[in-house]
Amino acid sequence: MLAPAAEALGVRFAVLAETADSPAAQVIHDVVVGDYTDFATLKAFAETVDVLTFDHEHVPPEHLEALVAAGHAVRPGPQALIFAQDKILMRRRMDELGLPNPRWAEITSTADAEAFAAEVGYPFIAKTPRGGYDGKGVRVITDSAEVADWLSDVPVLLAEEKVDFTRELAVMVGRSPMGQTAVWPVVETWQQDGVCKEAIAPAPGLPEEKARAITEAVLTVAGALDVTGVMAMEMFETPEGFLINEFAMRPHNTGHWTQDGSVTSQFEQHLRAVLDLPLGSPEAREDVSVMVNILGAEHEDLYRPYLHVMAHDPAVKVHLYGKGVRPGRKVGHVNAYGSDRELVLARARHAADFIAGVDPNPHPEMPAPAGVPATAPARSGAADPDERA
């Protein structure tokens, strides 16, 4: 999804892909297939480009440090990226900055777990400091024996209090090497089985003072960590305020709505930032924008229902990733925008779930958004593109 933004900016874009059929390799001309954990492969690739950036946090930090030492432009730099790679280091740094953390502890033994439970009570949350995502590497701990079992495989864990939150929020910021910043509206997110399912921008009913505090916090983090590129900050909202959950220093699922719902998408902004170009406006195009993920189910054919969705609601934007379908796997997302939040959300949910094959009401008759001609709904059960309206 960075590739179209690069093309629009007139930037040559290359990718180091793990496999020849990876999503990026399917749409980008300049592809090198190789192992990003192998330093020689990584260095050889870095020598073909002016700036190196990432779509995940799993590149070994020692490799990135060696590339910087060799004179390569790595953005974000390893000194910033480490706080997205290592959750314990992130918690320590947030405490140093005086930003709102949940109560936490570093756990290396059952005694540590029992001491933390004495402070916050059971259940609490345990996480692997590195490598976890989409709910992986996270467990709810109800007894210290569960920690002992996990510590036999992992030498250290991050323990966090189980936050009694009202909802989850996220915010995206872009920052360039010259220090220019741009922040998108705070969004509300909803997780399904540990995977982000929906994002609503702006977060409904968020008080202005709380939105301002969140914006100030993400700007503080971006500046203090010397972030280059875009960064997502995920949070728990509580009656007292908010608590930081984690960071991603790259384009992120909670910012996918910006592809179609803001003046400058997170993908274009990331490229502008890492290339030290002037940043674009993060202003929303409409009153409400939503993103709903398409999560794999039992239905493997995404293309035919995708055609139906295009015909049924031509104003929604469907983005498929070219991934094989597995239950719960993110295989695409749907963006929609407008002035009526409930209608916009209903349209995006229908489209995403219909493509996945889990929509119990596949053909709701919903009014077309303003300015878009209404289309007749497809006949019940008509997933075949030849039978669509």
From TrEMBL:
One of its GO terms (molecular function) is phosphoribosylaminoimidazole carboxylase activity. InterPro entries: ATP-grasp (IPR011761), ATP-grasp_carboxylate-amine (IPR003135), ATP_grasp_subdomain_1 (IPR013815), PreATP-grasp_dom_sf (IPR016185), PurK (IPR005875), PurK_C (IPR040686), PurT/PurK_preATP-grasp (IPR054350), Rudment_hybrid_motif (IPR011054). Residues 358-389 are annotated as: Disordered. Pathway: Purine metabolism; IMP biosynthesis via de novo pathway; 5-amino-1-(5-phospho-D-ribosyl)imidazole-4-carboxylate from 5-amino-1-(5-phospho-D-ribosyl)imidazole (N5-CAIR route): step 1/2. Homodimer. ATP binds at K87, K127, E160, E161, K162, V163, E168, N245, E246. This is N5-carboxyaminoimidazole ribonucleotide synthase. Keywords: ATP-binding, Ligase, Nucleotide-binding, Purine biosynthesis. It catalyses: 5-amino-1-(5-phospho-beta-D-ribosyl)imidazole + hydrogencarbonate + ATP = 5-carboxyamino-1-(5-phospho-D-ribosyl)imidazole + ADP + phosphate + 2 H(+). Residues 91-275 form the ATP-grasp domain.
